Amino acid sequence: MYSNAVNAYQKVVKATNSGRETEARVLSEAALRLKRCQESWESPGLEGRLDEALKYNQKIWSLFQGELARADNPLPQKLRVDILRLAAFIDKRIFEIMAFPAPEKLSIIININQNLAAGLRGSPG
User: Fold this and answer.
1) What percent of the chain has pLDDT over 90?
2) What is the pTM of this model?
């Protein structure tokens, strides 16, 4: 299943004009899904929506980790390491939310995703 996600991601990146725009788009979508959960925390069906939103986010960051770990990745080494550290933080926060859900815990992931998406688009956060 994971390899299917990686293959799908790679096909989308190749088929678009800008891989950066694709990355920005999926990060924005992940932030939006989490924000919707946060805003409707008390509504019925939250558990399923939250689980889906967290797993979507986790897939995105796992794909980033895989790409950043490749020896032929063109990003500067320091930037790659910094983003990998950020990915580790995101992973830890996702597992924390899965174990002990709370709406305020989503804010940092939402903000990181939105700011990184803005950076990829070359616009201010």
Assistant:
1) 77
2) 0.81
